[in-house]
Structures are given as structure tokens and as C-alpha cells.
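Sharing a chain and its predicted structure for anyone who wants a worked example. Both blocks are below, sequence first, C-alpha cells second.
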Amino acid sequence: MGFIRVKRIKGNRYAYAVENKWKKDKGPRQRVKEYLGKAISFDIVNEIVIPIKEEESRREIVQRLASNELIKRGFAHNGENLEKCGISFNEATMRFFSGGKEIRIAIEMNDGFLCSYMLERILLFKVKPDEDEREAGTRLAKLFVGSGLKPDDGSFVRFYQLS
């Protein structure tokens, strides 16, 4: 599992998914796996939280957590989307748009970055056959932290149980 690195280029911040590779003759080297988009942040403006329902699926749990974090930062509902400053988040697809086109963007929040890449990684999480519960739980927790999402204990356990 890698991490997200932010580079400053001409005064703008850009996020990248990075992993370390060990080179025999040179030691550790960082390899960019994917460009995630411009890194931006929004201050928290309210503490409204929409509760997770017991019967929600894994996808619905992640959608609700992402929506909660964006609403806390001033995004407002406009049909199927949450919008702020020309940025739209489609709750159904969990993708970001601007001017009707999909965009790559990484919104810095909590201790991570909310972006389509991290949301996909959470949704693709599966317990490995040779992995014990503690290792799998730690791996899932790192994905949530990396994405900037903060599930409560009940949501985390429910998501894990559905994995």
C-alpha cells in the first residue's frame, strides 16, 4: 500500500498516489502510480452529520461518509450532486465534475485526501485469504484515513463485515 504525496508546482498543489520501491543499488525510490488531481481544501463550516443506516451496503456507507464530509465543508445539494465553488460531487457515481466534465481533484480533509481514486480503493477492499482480522482491519482503517473519511465505529465494523 502506498501513500498520497503533494507536490507544489508553480504555486499550485497537486496530489499523486505514490509507492516506494526498493532498488538494490540505490535504496528506496518513490514511484508515482497515479495523478490524483489538484489538491485543495475547504474549511469546516458546520457539523451536520447524516447517520448511516444499518441496512446500507458498502457503497452506500462510503457515499454517505463522503457526502457528510463535503456537507461539513459547505457543499450543498443540487439534485444528485453536492456543489461548491464550481465543483460538483455526484453522490451516485462518487466522481467530481466541473462545467459538466469529470475532473481529477483531491480535497484535503482530516488526515487524507478525498478523491475518486481513494473511494475506488475503499470499495475494492477485500479481506485476503491469508490475512487475519487485525491485519485486514488495519489495512481498511488506513484506506479510510488516507481518503479523509472518518467512519464511526459502527460504520467501520458494518463495512468490514460486508467485505
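Comments welcome. The chain has two domains: 3-39, 41-161.
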